[in-house]
Amino acid sequence: MKNEISRREAMMQIGCIGAAALLNYENIMAENQQTMLQRNIPGTKEKLPVVGLGSWIQFDVGDSPSEKEGLTEVLTSMNKLGGKVIDSSPMYGRAEQVIGDLTAGLDFKDNFFYATKVWTTGKQAGIDQMNESFLKMRRKTMDLMQVHNLQDWQMHLKTIKGWKEEGKVRYAGITHYSVSAHQQLEQIVRSKVVDFVQFNYSIKVRNAEKSLLKTAQDNGVAVIINEPFDSGSLFKMVKGKALPPWAGDYDIKSWAQFFLKYILANPAVNCVIPGTSDKKHLVDNMGAGFGKLPDEAGLKMMLKYIETV
């Protein structure tokens, strides 16, 4: 909730874009028949839209209609704007169950790319937990099963790869949220035992630029980015600050898009998954997948500008 508040406060300070303009994205993109930028998953060449949705905190809600109503709007807008990836985990409280309950009632539920994780120790415990995730998310086939924070990753990957051969899982992956794990992630990526790797990366936390991003690209491993707003600290940093005048040259209409487009400018990134339970924020985030991305000159200006705020 603190992250959402800080973002809301930051958006209120921006004069270039209002809530009405953000929500109008849906109609503008539909009318112009624009589609979100997509990138191929290495190996299969399946295309994924570059902006998805994380579910930590925001989807960990109760059963009351009032708690779930806004989340249904988020999923509906996401589908309308072409987003697909929904990322969850057993670690996220009721998020898997809520995702399963909400999508079950949607006509377009099969449009999404469902990703979750295993977060336990031991072969049978992993099998039991993953089967429970299938039940909660109401999926017969999981698009992506990931080992959360590398916990007992060698054991779980054996199970996941077996399930992939059986058709129960489509892709295998590993995840972490900390820079301290980047070196180990890179070693695993080099071994080519996974299809996806998920890690933290933002305009202020750029350790992945040293070698992890390039290693994933060179070894044919798809990349999902978490913590794109650095746990909300980026919005606190720019509170009360105006976007630079040249931001429009890259179709940047808000600080959220500024931060997300910096990440998406790297061709190694397949998808970024900012979490939100707010429709306005969802539409804003999805907007980063449309229009021009920063070139090398633009990235340098973005970094220089951020150093001044």
What order do the helices and strands come in, and which of them pair?
Blueprint: H1 2-12, H2 19-23, H3 25-31, E1 38-40, E2 47-49, E3 53-54, H4 65-80, E4 85-87, H5 95-104, E5 113-118, H6 123-137, E6 142-147, H7 153-166, E7 169-175, H8 182-191, E8 196-200, H9 212-218, E9 222-226, H10 233-237, H11 255-264, E10 271-272, H12 279-287, H13 296-306
Parallel strand pairs: 3-4, 4-5, 5-6, 6-7, 7-8, 8-9, 9-10
Antiparallel strand pairs: 1-2
Helix pairs in contact: 4-12, 5-6
User: Strand-and-helix sequence, N→C?
Assistant: HHHEEEHEHEHEHEHEHEHHEHH
Overall helicity:
40-55%
In spatial order, strands of the major sheet run: 3-4-5-6-7-8-9-10
Based on Cα principal axes, name the global outline: globular
> How would a textbook summarize the main sheet?
8 strands, parallel
Radius of gyration: 19 Å
Can you tell me the residue ranges where pLDDT is under 50 for at least 5 consecutive residues?
1-5, 9-17
Assigned CATH class: Alpha Beta
What would you say the CATH architecture is? Alpha-Beta Barrel
CATH topology: TIM Barrel
Please give a structural write-up.
The protein is α/β, with parallel strands linked by helices. It is built from 13 helices and ten strands. It has helices at 2-12, 19-23, 25-31, 65-80, 95-104, 123-137, 153-166, 182-191, 212-218, 233-237, 255-264, 279-287, 296-306, and strands spanning 38-40, 47-49, 53-54, 85-87, 113-118, 142-147, 169-175, 196-200, 222-226, 271-272. The chain has an eight-stranded parallel β-sheet. Strands 1-2 form a two-stranded antiparallel ribbon. This is Aldo/keto reductase. InterPro entries: AKR2_Oxidoreductase, NAD(P)_OxRdtase_dom_sf, NADP_OxRdtase_dom.
